[in-house]
Amino acid sequence: MKLSVFDWLANTSLAGGLDFFDCVEVRFKNSRKEYFRNVDKLPLQAGDVVATEANSGHDVGVVTLTGELVRMQMKKRSIDWNNEDLPRVYRKANQKDIDVWQESRKREISVQKRSRELAIALGLEMKISDVEFQGDGSKATFYYTAEGRVDFRQLIKDMARAFGIRIEMRQIGFRQEAARLGGIGSCGRELCCATWLTDFRSVSTSAARYQQLSLNPQKLAGQCGKLKCCLNFELDTYLDALKDFPKTETKLHTQRGLATCQKIDIFKRLMWYTYDESPMTWYKLSVDSVKEIIELNKEGQQIEELEEYTIINDLSSKRSSSSMGLEMKPVEEDSITRFDTPRRRKKKNNQAKKAQNRPDRASQSPEGKVSQKAENVQGQGKKQGQNPNAQKQRRGQGQQQAATEGQSQKRKPNNNKNQKRPNNNSEISKDEKN
């Protein structure tokens, strides 16, 4: 549904001698709005359901606007309010009119489905997108889209025989179809043509080229299958900004070789160039620097290389930073995960429990037993609310391990002495005997 016009003159009284404007704006299905003359000067307000004049019978709609703003809307759409043939409002709709109107609206879905089946049976290349019943239920308007002209004379006969009403066929464009049906665009908002856009201007691919957009049909096309209308919204701003840019076809002459423009950033006023010999290395230059190089080339002079004018960051160039004695570093892009919550480290107590439950070969040796006891003591200290220093524990464990190793080393020479003593005793006993 298109957005309603706000009546900012609703509470404003008319000046003396001015008559109230006798035309009203009435909305029908799918935001179709028409203007009628209030001949009987009924006290109508926005939201009233009225019965209006039609070609045959009457139609039922909702009043959306009254007063002087209706005159402005009619002037905007080039409708003459002094025309005597302007249709008029019959009356405020009574309960019988509303009941017939609601019953006919309920039939629209089934009638649309059946009409599509009849069109397919006749082999017609057309798509019936919407059906609108008149308020009294005596007539139905079928809106369809087609690439070319369609001979639907037999279709009208079949539909009149099947539905028993008068049939009117009306061809609309693909943009008008999207405006009538509505939907959600790729931006996440309702379609512009369904909410506020009334005039559909032609959109060309040059609008995408000026805005430096990739010519991808799937991204540039809307739900209607045509180019998006929003491509024209900012086109004038881009064209004004491009007037100060040098032509991208112009090549820069340097002593190292020719340089060609590969990319531009309109609003940051930046241009990227590459040497023809090494197209993989890009050099970022400002628009003013490019103009300066072009002027030097016109005078027959060549710069040594593009590195002299290359921008390291968006604020200054190499030349300006070297002259000021500053080292400018490139601006790094922010990390994608900068808003993610950091993972918490697991507590050492959990690691100690895992070490206790996990069978290990080192635990069978005396050194493993000592380290296991130290871990158990550490876990008990944490449970009691103590916070021992990790370095002291490691030193204590190292001293215990060193003590155990020293004991094992001392035991080895004692065993050797015990083996040699019997020999010495035997020699002494022999001497004593002699």
UniProtKB/TrEMBL annotation:
Residues 317-434 are annotated as: Disordered. Residues 409-420 have a biased composition (Basic residues). It comes from the Bacteria. Residues 329-342 have a biased composition (Basic and acidic residues). PROSITE patterns: PSP1_C. NCBIfam families: RicT_YaaT_fam. It comes from Capnocytophaga haemolytica. This is PSP1 C-terminal domain-containing protein.
